[in-house]
Amino acid sequence: MKKIFNFTICMIALGMISCTSNEQKANKLIKQYMFESLYDFKSYEPTKTSIDTLRADIYLNEEALEYAEKGIEYASRIEDLNEEVENNKRDMEFAASMNRHFSSSYGKFQYNEAKEKYHKSQTAFNYALREVLVCMYNIIFIKEEIDQNPAILSGWKVNHKYRCNTRGGDISLGEMIFIMDDEFQEILTTYDVDDMPYAGYVEFIKKTLTETDKEALISKIEELESNGIQ
Hints:
Layout lengths: L1 H36 L7 E11 L6 H40 L3 H44 L3 E14 L5 E10 L6 E6 L5 H14 L2 H13 L4
Antiparallel strand pairs: 1-2, 2-3, 3-4
């Protein structure tokens, strides 16, 4: 019984040494990264490092992040495109009204020109909208695949919190996610939790997953595609 107890204690001790060793290896890589990246490295002070098994994660999935980037890009155009549609619609309606009261070949030309501009802007708006919706659908699809097949990946996910001085001399708190290889030999990918563009991608994905009805999304995409938007 005593031998079993001693063996158990030894295994726990080895596990603690291994964890400490991993954290030391991770912090060594992080320190080098911060040395090369921070404006005022001398003020850098790590506050917390946590190491976790690298699992399939929608917020670390490169394909999902690419869809978020594309979705944000097209979403940023929608407001201006919608304003352009409304302006062109008013111009078309005004040209139609003038042509009814003062019918002429020039009046018809103005109306046709305004009508063409309106249809072009409407098509551009619908295309941008479809692209946003398709990106949202693909993100939902990726999340469903991850939930159905929760895979453990090769490598480590390291969350690192720290404080340092900004260019203005103010103390800033930061948080980074580091993806490291399974031997802690190199940093494969980094994500700045608080800064753009990653923070924007995360917000887009979160809203897509929490505020979007999948069936309504599919219905709207099909409606746009039935009107010739591809």
